[in-house]
Amino acid sequence: MDWLREIPLTFEWILLYAFGLVALIQLFYYWFFFSRLAFRKPKKKYDATPPVSLIICAKNEYLNLEENLPFFLDQDYPDYEVLVVNDGSDDETELLLHEMRGKTPRLTVVNLQKNVNFFRGKKFPLSIGIKEARHGLIVVADADCRPASRQWIAGMVSRFDPAAEIVLGYGPYRKKPGLLNKLIRYDTFFIGLQYLSFALAGNAYMGVGRNLAYRREVFFRVKGFISHYKVMSGDDDLFINQAATRRNVRIEVDPDSHTLSLPKESLGKWFHQKRRHMTTGNYYKPRFKFLLGLLSLSQVLFYLLFAILMACCVLSTIGLIAAAIFAIRMISMLIIFYKAGKKLNQSRLSLYSPLFDLIMLVLNLTFAFSAMFFNNNRWK
């Protein structure tokens, strides 16, 4: 055991050991989880075209429905219905839907009266939509998004092999000028990289309600949203957290199968959206809390310890070793993010990752801290 006595144990070396451990944790996530999406080879698609019920919940969405609903009604798919649940809108949503329903038999409308939505969010209207749906295969989207192509439904359905019960899609935001738009799109890309990669590893923990498909029997098997009905958000991530198993989830990332949304145009609106979404994390299963918490903690410690090491040891051997470890992690991130970005049609955006990784770390800490004191019972 004499070799133990030769290990340097000064404060600077202890910091370096801690930094190396944190970097290893980060590399584990990159190469064990995220690489699954980055280096994923095309998988076989299934040719079956079972009937589909597409459900869109809307509350005061007149303008969005007027712009986006025609794209949902014009899918290149043989047998599907579009079911819009109007959640007691105050605008002219009901009149618009009545007019559009007269033009196409594919559209079904369910109008809910005001003050009957006891879930304070999408969960009640979505539950009504699923119960009213004519078909057993459910695809959900939001009124403020549109499919990227006429092949969207076909692409999502093509992943339903006999064992599949849930298909997770990807919903990027539209590209616009400005730093805020890049940050929102990068944040969406990184979140997508996480939940899609985790799903490929048999640990699906969330999806996005603007691009998600599942069998109706799964919804009823887990008793819908009853276990988390008091939480305003979570019609997507908490449902997947509850219903997903290691074998019943598939993903679909073809750009033709994306849905495109308009991003928030102010930092304040994005801030409100982010902190509301963060409130659902407390209800995740323990193993997902651990995995996601360790990822976030290791990211914070990685930059913090590196900054301390550079401040005290920049020109020493310790500083050089720390710089090498930092470079390995950053190069790994660039490689994996770029490859994953190509899969998600976000390759150019992924090149900003060295800068945006740090910026989003600071912003997410701010969002998380704010969410601890945030309470909102309103959906729209």
Instruction: Specify the number of helices.
Output: 14
Order of helices and strands: HHEHEHEHEEHEHEHHEEHHHHH
Kindly report the spatial arrangement of strands forming the biggest sheet.
3-2-1-4-7-6-8
What number is the mean pLDDT?
90
CATH homologous superfamily placement of the largest domain: Spore Coat Polysaccharide Biosynthesis Protein SpsA, Chain A
Count of individual beta strands: 9
The helix-and-strand class reads alpha/beta
Number of domains: 2
Helix content: 40-55%
> Any idea what the CATH architecture of the largest domain is?
Alpha-Beta Complex
Indicate the CATH topology of the largest domain: Spore Coat Polysaccharide Biosynthesis Protein SpsA, Chain A
Residue runs with pLDDT of under 50 for 5 or more positions: 1-5
Give the percentage of residues in beta strands.
Answer: 5-15%
Instruction: Using the CA coordinates, give the radius of gyration.
Output: 23 Å
**Termini separation:** 65 Å
Instruction: Tell me the name of the CATH class of the largest domain.
Output: Alpha Beta
Identify the overall geometry: elongated
Please give the largest β-sheet.
Answer: 7 strands, mixed
